[in-house]
Amino acid sequence: MAEESLLSVEKLSKYFPIGGGMFAKPKAWVKAVEGVSFNVRKQENFGVVGESGCGKTTMGRMILNLIEPTTGRIVFDGTDITPLSRSRMKPFRRHIQTIFQDPYSSLDPRMKVASIVAEPLRGLGGYDRLQRRRIVAELIAKVGLGRADLDKFPHEFSGGQRQRIGIARALCVRPKLIVADEPVSALDVSIQAQVLNLLDDLKAEFNLSYLFISHDIGVVEHMCDRVAVMYLGRIVEIAGIEAFRRNPLHPYTEALRNAVPAPDPRHRIKPYAMKGDVPDPISPPPGCAFHPRCDYAFEKCSVERPRLKSVESGHDVACWYNDGRGLVMD
User: Fold this and answer.
1) Does 3 have pLDDT greater than 80?
2) Phi, psi (degrees; rounded to nearest 5) at 267
3) Which long-range contacts (CB under 8 A, 24 or more apart) does 251-256 make?
4) Among 4, 64, 77, 249, which one is most buried in terms of CB atoms within 10 A?
5) Cα–Cα distance measured from residue 161 to residue 262, given in angstroms and rounded to the nearest whole number
6) Integer CA distances (angstroms), 20 to 24, 25, 28, 30, in order
7) Residue 196, domain CATH
8) What range defines the domain where residue 73 resides?
9) 239: in domain
10) 212 pairs with which residues across the strands?
């Protein structure tokens, strides 16, 4: 795998105001994403996993330049795209595409498949109608649909077929990076496997990198080379997939891993049920945000917030009490 970075996210934050108005100051701020940093290498699958509401989708939308960050930088292929206006961002749209979570609402019900898939080509310009039709027909075949499907409307397809159409639309401009935001969560389990295998095949053929956003650890383990774990807007652990499977260092990662049912009933997992609920992002707890739900927390956890630090090669964690073994990090 190439080690060269394709995407670098540096101290990215997004705060949303609560209350206030045109002339009044906000009453409070929701810190949806706070101080997130990571990189995605060329031809790598990088996963971001966490509970609903942890800020994964907001982070993905900032990377796509759909919402403006409060602070931080996004560097794509050597260019800082954070300050770019809509017109200056247009050339980069070719290289960064997305697959949406909902295969029903993400497709215009009034457009035929050929028009839906060709829409990015029309937006970027430089292709005539026959060229667009040829490109779309080739992509529809690659995602497992037929030429006859080009003249159908979205309501004539199943959920899995609609997501294939969404994948073809993302690929039609030959991107370098695809932000896949929960791309299979709305599909049946059997269809999920087909779509994931399709994405894996297309990655090799198109030399793609994926930023895979999901709450499903099984999906992330199947697809990704490295994983970042998010909790309440912050990354608490980054690890290669083998370390993520065998040696999770943050108690939150451990809890997520243990929540996955074991396929073999003879394989016993140490029970570790998280107590309480996710804290209010408007007024998060002091220190480590996870400490009210953590069985390993001690006094320092409630006072001082741990920083993301490297504890071994390629494995970073933000935790004062590492892996429940009493290893206190400096």
Assistant:
1) no
2) -90, 110
3) 251/290, 251/294, 251/295, 251/296, 251/319, 251/321, 251/324, 252/290, 252/293, 252/294, 253/229, 254/323, 254/324, 256/49, 256/50, 256/217, 256/229
4) 249
5) 30
6) 5, 5, 9, 13
7) 3.40.50.300
8) 5-95+175-248
9) yes
10) 47, 180
